[in-house]
Amino acid sequence: MKNNEIKLIFRGLKKNKIVLSINILGLAIGFAFVILAGRYVYTEMTFDHFHENHKTLYRVEWTTSDKFTSSTPNIMHSWLTSKIPEVKHVTRIINDAGGLMKRNIMYNNTKYNVNNPLIVDYDFFGMFSFKVLLGEIKSFENDKYSAALTRPFATKVFGADNPVGKTISYKGELFIVRAVLDEPPANSSVKFEMLLPIANIPSYATMDWQNNTLETFIQSHAGISPLALQQKIHDGIISEFNLLGYTEQAATRHFRLNPLDKIYYSDILYDNVCIHGNSRNTLMLLSLAILVLIIAMFNYTNAVLANATENMKGIGIRSVVGASRLRNIGYMICQSVLPCIIAMALAVFFTLSIENVTGQVLSIPLVKMRILHFMTIIGSTLLFGILVGIWPAVKLTSGKITDLLNERTKSGENTTGIGNVFSVAQFAASIVLIISVFSMYKQIDFVLKQSGKNMDEEFVVYMPLANRTEQKGGNIATIQEALKLLPEVKGVSTGLSLPGDEFYSNLRGLPLKYDEEERTVDVNHDMVDAGYPEVMGYKIKKGKSFDASLKLDYKSYLVNEAFIKKYGIHDISVAQLNGSPIIGVMQDFHYNSLHKEIEPLAIRYENSYQSRIVVKLAPPANGSFSEIIKKINKVVDSVDNTAVTDILFLDQHIAALYDKEIKMSKILFVLAFFSILISCMGLFSMSLFITEKRTKEIGIRKVNGAKISEVLVMLNKDFVKWVAIAFVIACPIAWYIMNKWLENFAYKTELSWWIFALTGLLALGIALLTVSWQSWKAATRNPVEVLRNE
Amino acid sequence: MIQLTNIDKYYDSKFQRTYVLKDIILEVKEGEFLSVMGPSGSGKSTLLNIIGLMDSPSSGKYLLDGNSVLDLKEKVRVDYHRNFISFIFQAYHLIEEMTVYENIETPLIYKGVKSHDRESMVADLLDRFNIVAKKDLFPQQLSGGQQQLVGIARAIISKPKLLLADEPTGNLHSTQGEMIMETLKELNNEGMTIIHVTHNEKFAQYGKRIIRLEDGNIRSDTNRKT
Question: Nearest-CA residue of chain B relative to A317?
Answer without folding.
Answer: B93
